[in-house]
UniProtKB/TrEMBL annotation:
Record EC number: 2.6.1.-
Name used for this protein in its record: Aminotransferase
Cofactor(s) the protein requires to work: pyridoxal 5'-phosphate
Domain Aminotransferase class I/classII large: 29-372
Keyword terms: Aminotransferase, Pyridoxal phosphate, Transferase
Family: Belongs to the class-I pyridoxal-phosphate-dependent aminotransferase family.
CDD domains membership: AAT_like
Keyword DNA damage listed: no
Biological source species: Collinsella ihumii
Matches recorded under PROSITE patterns: AA_TRANSFER_CLASS_1 (PS00105)
Gene Ontology molecular function: any one: transaminase activity
Amino acid sequence: MMKSTSSAFARIKPSGIRRINTLAAQQPDCIPLALGEPDFDTPPAISAEVAAALARGETHYPPNCGTPELRRAIAAYMARQGIPADPEAVTVTAGATEAISATLAALLDPGDEVIIPVPAFTLYEAAVHINRGTPVLMSTVEAGFQIDEGELRALVTPATKAIIICTPNNPTGCLLDAASLDAVAAVAEEAGIFVICDDVYNRLVYEGPYERFAVRHPELADRTVVVDSFSKPWAMTGWRLGWVSAAAPIAAEIAKAHQYMVSSVPAFVMPAAARALEVDPTPMLDIYRARRTRVLEALDKMGMPPAVKPAGAFYAFIPVTQTGLGSEEFCERAIVEAGVGLVPGECFGCAGFARLSYCVADDALDEGLRRLERFVASLRG
Ligand SMILES: Cc1ncc(COP(=O)(O)O)c(C=O)c1O
């Protein structure tokens, strides 16, 4: 008899978003409003740095946590955002994806519980399983996608190790309000747990008030882990570049996880990453803002408004059960029958909704919305 593969991985399903994208790709002429990535190319000023780095021969193993120049640039960038960071406590990672995975690897012992307010980015739950932890999902739907202190406190057990928060949120575009951030702080302080802040959309905010946990609660810097990424603000998803910053003792453990799992990010992309930090992403934000208006108007017209008006990121999270379909069926049939791709809420731990992404050019967005309108009308008979 042969031994089995890891039981932790047996619990994880391949990403549902990929499955939907594959289904959409198989459908001729489908308009995918499903992708969580900017449709823009990386600004040329950033990309140009790669050729220059290669010409300088920057093709050798770099320092594990990133070049001193890039770590200093990130720390200075964070300081400008109101989050003091020591360059030595910054690790440059293969996207926020690795930052989150390395953080959980560094923090968790087998059986530790991690509270995940849902809907949430799929990675969190999988990464907790991979690290032999137990995800504890906390639905925020009833609380309007905010975090209720009493509910959060009720989920804390002696095994609770951390909570992962994300604002602006994927998939809702919601910003956590001050009361939510304070609830997390109060519970984290009482229970001595870590707060992992997935802040990858922090530059994509349309209207405030917006506050980051690390800025509002500097007194908890000893247990706060800040994750950020080059992917979203500078249209650099394919570069696979992000970072994580934490207090020195935690950062040292995360650096070990990173060192043994990844070693480092490529040497010749790091000058470009440092350059990106100086590039203003506002022109792209303005385009998303205009698209958001188009999306909200169209959804309103078809009687399918999002659960909340998105104030950040580039998603609308739409309740779909009023059409008589569950969200998986809604999204699958929208692809096959109408040629428009959306992601079912199940992919974010929250059935009954579909995520629409407006990371597509205006013409495609308008056509995708027209198709969605026809599809919804056909369901209503
Ligand atoms: C909330 C959230 N966190 C992290 C990531 C991963 O980003 P990266 O490309 O930096 O790995 C994504 C990507 O969609 C995301 O939506």
